[in-house]
Amino acid sequence: MGAGSADGGPETSWASFDAALSLWNRVSTNNSRSPEACPEQTAYRCPKTEPGPPSDAVPNLGPNPPQSHLEAFGVEKKSPGAAHREPRPGPESCSRTVEGPVEGGMTALAGPVPRMMRPTLPQNYPRNGFPLEVSTPLGQGRVNQLGGVFINGRPLPNHIRHKIVEMAHHGIRPCVISRQLRVSHGCVSKILCRYQETGSIRPGAIGGSKPKQGTTPDVERRIEEYKRENPGMFSWEIRDKLLKDGMCDRNNAPSVSSISRIMRSKFGGKGDEEEDDEEMDKKELEDSDRRAKHSIEGILGDRGT
DNA sequence: AACGTCACGGTTGAC
DNA sequence: AAGTCAACCGTGACG
User: Which keywords describe this protein according to UniProt (predicted)?
Assistant: First the structure.
């Protein structure tokens, strides 16, 4: 599964990030949007999937959930530091349309503007005196519109996720959760939806790429077998044998390099396949080149268009 | 006002 | 070892 970031990764990051929050704490301001407990409480239900999940026990939050994101990190709120930064340039491409002015002093462009080109404020634009970024050992901390701290591209720490789910369990509405924990409502919505659907509060696996079609566990196993039966077998021979045995076809057969990699990981050492790798890679290259030339693109390309 | 959705800029890790 | 790519992230804006 690999993507360990969902498990161990973030914790390490957030550990140092938490420490940095005390720094932020020293310069941050009392948020004018200070969250207020909302009297009306409606249990959250994900519109997509009704049945709630039984698994992934949620820790007890207690009757008085923390008032802010910063407190959720174990940090007190303190006073202002309005470091203003240059807004970054907005997005340039677009697909939907938008009309009218945009919050934050942006003026409307004439006529409908495709949405992706909408003159939005750059993300995390400090419209209420909050600094764009929090100085952290990681140099990645930012503050959202609600005054919450987050690391762009990284999952919220587990305790915040737990709190979100826990509060929802207590019947607190997502909008209130969002304000109290200072997490964007889109994020609260996403986490609760995921929890409803999967029963897990954990973020998904980040990073990595899909294993190539050819290198399925079955194929891997077969490669191991071949190599065990005949240790002197070359990668390209294994590849040929995979094709001959119908384990895969020319389209999804693993490359020679892949086979070598698999063998390296299974058997260690580098063996003789290193050498024939290059040769075979060349062969493959020529092969695909030849194939390409016989494709429509290749033929058209040859005509010089 | 509340909330679902999605583009965006970002991170990550297998290939 | 370095680059690519496709997964994921949370935010912020629209509807």
Answer: Developmental protein, DNA-binding, Homeobox, Nucleus, Paired box, Transcription, Transcription regulation
Q: Which nucleotide is nearest to A204 (CA to C1')?
A: C8
Question: What contacts A37, CB < 8 A, 6 or more positions away?
Answer: A176, A180
Distance CA A223, CA A264 (A): 11
pLDDT per residue as tens digits for the range A80-134: 322 233 333 333 333 333 233 222 223 333 333 333 333 344 444 443 334 456 6
A93 C-beta less than 7 Å away from strand B: yes
Cβ of A132 near strand B (distance < 7 A): no
pLDDT score recorded for residue A146: 93
Q: Which of A100, A139, A141, A145 is nearest to A122 (CA)?
A: A145
| Residue A139: band (very low, low, confident or very high) from pLDDT cuts 50, 70, 90 | low
DSSP one-letter code for A146: T
CB neighbours (10 Å) of residue A154?
17
The Å distance, CA of A23 to C1' of C7, is: 33
CA A137 – CA A18 distance, rounded (Å): 10
Task: Name the nucleotide nearest A92; use CA and C1'.
Answer: B8
Q: Name the protein residue, with chain letter, whose CA is nearest the C1' of C15.
A: A98
Distances (CA, A) of A110 to A96, A103, A122, A172, A277: 15, 16, 20, 42, 59
Q: Which residue is nearest to nucleotide B7 (CA to C1')?
A: A116
**HSE toward the beta carbon, residue A286, CA cutoff 13 A:** 5
What average pLDDT does the segment A276-284 reach?
42
